Amino acid sequence: xxxxxxxxxxxxxxxxxxxxxxxxxxxxxxxxxxxxxxxxxxxxxxxxxxxxxxxxxxxxxxxxxxxxxxxxxxxxxxxxxxxxxxxxxxxxxxxxxxxxxxxxxxxxxxxxxxxxxxxxxxxxxxxxxxxxxxxxxx
Length: 138
Known about the structure:
- By secondary structure, the chain is an all-alpha fold.
- Helix content is 53%, strand content 3%.
- The longest helix has 69 residues, at 39-107.
């Protein structure tokens, strides 16, 4: 393997041009071909390292934001699950109360009607026959 004398990238043996910076290998001065790196190559390398450093910082920042968002969403899910459990418990209690009330209503004696079943006339407690239609009421 050979290295580009301009940017320092590794190249295939016999390359005429650098595949990274485009420098022509044969056009460089003899000192550069001998392995002496130019200021331009060092600056290019520093620039790439800076660029990659910036990219890494950006990716880390975005990853941290997404982790924070995810943690907030997980906390919201946990809160909603707790609220759901509380509401399910309340619903179960209300169903039980409704069932108990229905049982009390079913067990209660029917109110005594003081009306004649045939004509609807109001009857007193001591009447055995309706005084309007003569129907036996007791």
